[in-house]
Fold this protein.
Amino acid sequence: MHIFNPLSTPSTSTGLFRSLSLQGRWLSAALNTAIIMGLYEFYDYGRGLIPRNGPVALQHAHEVWNWEVRHGIFVEPDWQQFWLTKVHMLAGLRFTPARVTELLNTGYLYIHFLGTIAFLIWLFLFRRQIFPYVRNIFFVTTAIALVVYILYPLAPPRLTPNLLYYHRHYIFIDTVRLVIDPRLQTSQIGYNPYAAMPSLHFGWALIIGCTLAATLRFWPLRVLCLGYPFFMLAVIVISGNHFFADAIGSAVVVAVATAAVTLWMAWRKQLPWRLAAPSQTA
């Protein structure tokens, strides 16, 4: 009986990789990561070229708001008010609204992108066997998201007026406006503010968190990495960039992408756990 162990790399799939020098491994990892991020930039630019149908995107935003209200999950204003209007002390650290805002923007604009690059390099170097599988999930997730952006443009909460919360109009705090000029948010080529459903920030974080939780050796690190998607969920919601429904949509997209990749690679007999070496038996 063959058992897949993600902590080791079978010679059947990585003999050539193991024969490379350390410098060659880093070069190969950098090349693969550059290809993936290049495709992401192509996707990001293509997303920006999607016609920005503001009225339709706002109409959809109100539909999502109405759906959340009916299901009792429209609590985004509570999260914003709690973190962006009060001072909090956590583990001896003082978090003012300004500091929280800076943390949110850093997470949204930089940790999402740079963290994904670091994860892909680590995955290629130390979990080489499952790299193609996870990479393909990234690809398919992103491709599905692009199709949804075209079919269902959605404005983020921070750009949606006339949302009611406890029968009062609520205007979301827009933390991104401190970094990106609001005038550019609807005119800059390569940027589309109405591509909110699904949230790739949460979708990618979900892929990263689950992969690390399944492959790291020490269980405390596994638990910690499972917290990464929740961190990104807090970032996208408190910053006003996404509804909770966008994260739910992301989870559905990731699940569909994972199923599609699994079936495709199973048909081609390329699933990593089917490549387990005979020495990994029990």
Notes: Residues 97-126 form the longest helix (30 residues). The mean pLDDT is 82. The chain has one domain: 25-43+50-275.
